Amino acid sequence: MTDPTYPDLRDASVFITGGGSGIGANLTEGFLRQGARVAFIGRSDASAFVTEVSDRTGNTPLFIQGDITDIAALRAAMDEAAAAHGPITRLINNAANDQRHATLDVDEAFWEWSIAINLKAYFFACQHAIHGMKTAGYGHIVNFSSISYMMGNAGYAIYTSANSGINGMTRSLAREFGPDKIRVNALAPGWVLTQKQLDKWADPDSLAAHLDRQCLKDTLQPEDIVNPTLFLSSEASRMMTGQAMVVDGGVVVTG
């Protein structure tokens, strides 16, 4: 299968949170293959990944090491990306942490930590990017959510709360900044088998039960999320905003 090409992504200034590992690494590579100018932030050193993906694509991303929960550092990273590549016109809020937790064991510190990663950073990344997008005259934002809140999954209530909040925030920002030609959409993947998922939670019984709920009887891989993100970030979806696109093999039904 030949991957689609989106000409308007060539030389576009793209900023991805968590772009050095998991789904984020595939997103970074996907945008690089489109010829975009990609910058990403991540907590862990991604220098080896930068070298590898540059060799594979012939296009080198800008890696900025930092913690998205430090809003000042997040803003500084976005400013560095804009200085290197021009005003950010595509923001991909991908970084998240779905650490499992028992509701009755949660204290305020864990609540604040989880919300900081899974919702607060998304809002302030959008806020900061929108300033530059208004100057550029347009922009496209993709906020990663999850089908977990649609399914009402137990075991990580703060994470699902944040996912639902991302959906609401996406709709409100789309309404507020549509007149500025800024589109804001959410993308809700199903159970994507990243290495983290395989290491921690994707035991055979759980995976079999989840596949039984899918219409398509195949596992979701990180690369399955790349093309939907490129689509939402390109002019191919120019009249689509305030929406939540589900890519889950057919577990939940929206509409």
UniProtKB/TrEMBL annotation:
<feature type="domain" description="Ketoreductase">
    <location>
        <begin position="12"/>
        <end position="204"/>
    </location>
</feature>
<dbReference type="InterPro" id="IPR036291">
    <property type="entry name" value="NAD(P)-bd_dom_sf"/>
</dbReference>
<protein>
    <submittedName>
        <fullName>3-oxoacyl-ACP reductase</fullName>
    </submittedName>
</protein>
<dbReference type="InterPro" id="IPR057326">
    <property type="entry name" value="KR_dom"/>
</dbReference>
<keyword id="KW-0560">Oxidoreductase</keyword>
<comment type="similarity">
    <text>Belongs to the short-chain dehydrogenases/reductases (SDR) family.</text>
</comment>
<dbReference type="InterPro" id="IPR002347">
    <property type="entry name" value="SDR_fam"/>
</dbReference>
<dbReference type="Pfam" id="PF13561">
    <property type="entry name" value="adh_short_C2"/>
</dbReference>
